[in-house]
Amino acid sequence: MLDLGTTFLQSVERSPHALALVDSGVRLTYAQWHEQIGRTVAGLQRLGLGRGDRLLSVLQNRHQAATLHWACQFLGVVIVPLNWRAKADEIDYCLADAEAKAVFFDASSEEATRASGGARALPRIGVGTLEGSDATGDWETLLAGPASPLQTAADAEDLSLMLYTSGTTGKPKGVPRRHRQERAAALAHVAQNLYRRGERTLGVMPLYHTMGVRSLLAMALVDGVFVCMPRFDTQEALALIEAECLTCLYLVPTLYHDLLTQRERAGHGSGPGPDIASVKKLGFAGAPMHDALLKRLQAAFEPELFVNHYGSSEVYTFSIDQQALDKPGSAGRAGINTRLRVVRLDASGVDDRVAPGVEGQIIADLRGDEAFEGYWKREDANTKSLRSGWYFTGDTGYLDEDGDLFVTGRVDDMIISGGENISPVDIESVISLCPGVGEVAVAGLSDERWGQRVVAFVTTRDGGAPLDAHALDAHCRSSDLPNFKRPREYVFVAEIPKSPVGKVLRRKLVAGEYTPLPAGEDRSA
After folding, report:
1. What is the pTM of this model?
2. Per-domain residue ranges for the chain?
3. CATH T-level assignment (fold) for domain 28-176
4. Given pLDDT bands bounded at 50, 70 and 90, which one contains residue 419?
5. Which end of the chain offers a freer environment for a tag, N or C, measured as fewer CB atoms within 10 Å?
């Protein structure tokens, strides 16, 4: 298989004058981007970086971050992208764990980088406008020298990047991925989303997240356009969709929710309009999408393709459903590089499968072309998650009679009430269909009698129907939700706590880390 540097050269050779990268006033063709990547490679070499070294990037989604990613692929340097919101101690931990030899940062991460003791011992390259920075160099100086001839120093077996998991419990885990695994995942992304040559996408999913990396690589594979968006803003996103005639979106459900809410507030209504007419393909991942949001998106975009993608940093694609609206909640079937099973929650082995309709833990075959081989220096995590050549995802779900997968949550999110195992996702889908509901998250709170009681945390939509606990309970009672799953309490909140990439943080709800609101107060999502 080709390495990623050679993969980029393919696009340069096929379409040198095609637009490749957009970021505010920066517009680069593939030939121009190729030249800038060459200058970046030369600058990295002057820093003493070479094949197999690790480089920590704490950058927002700007053109320099995309260029740095590709430069590392040519040079054989392993890029280690980190959340630009990371604190100094997180930077210290990842620098030491990855054994990184340089740090790139911008204004968003400048304060944390300055406070990082580990960063002070390394070359620190500042990107963009910085005030009072203690950087040892800057992006402009890095690119000031002559470009290196772009002949890739890596091969398909070399490491391409190392992503760090979110670390919601314990220290984050490094997920090293090879060029061949990254290329296979990008090819699968192109195939599963039916991308054509010249697609144009919004590059807003962060490049420290597998969804952002996949968008970046996939656009190069189809000679497409990656439109950078350093930080998500609903108005700006809608403006970019219209101005750049974007053809495909790949976002987490939260960002879709926010886009639709912004359009409605701006008076576009809930239907299609010229501002989003160019978008023909929608894809989502990172979290389940509730039924109500699926229907709103279908009405607004009228997409040719609506893809539900279920995966992880470790194994990019678990399953795919290219007709997300046909069977709401379904994550479809195994992707083109994957095999899946659902085994008992307390499975003793990978063959301990459950029958259709029975909830269990989802596992994936590690022989798939997209699958990683193990965590970085974490044998404890490998022992827990890698068994007999399969990856135990920690996600719960079931296969229906048709063989379609339904993801119901995390093993750790399972609510055990009165001896019954209850997953939050199907409850959330029912509540999301209640008129006036904006967002909903369900969690299990401690209960002396039941062990845990089911509690729904709810925000409302602008202009939605008045809501109170009685209306929500009546809605649940009139649905097909079994009585034992019905929430025993409804809490109206200002917002649902989420991670930087839009995943609901149920642990914060359980811990009481939210702003409660009385029923009837303005709490628009």
Report:
1. 0.84
2. 28-176, 339-412, 414-510
3. Rossmann fold (3.40.50)
4. low
5. N
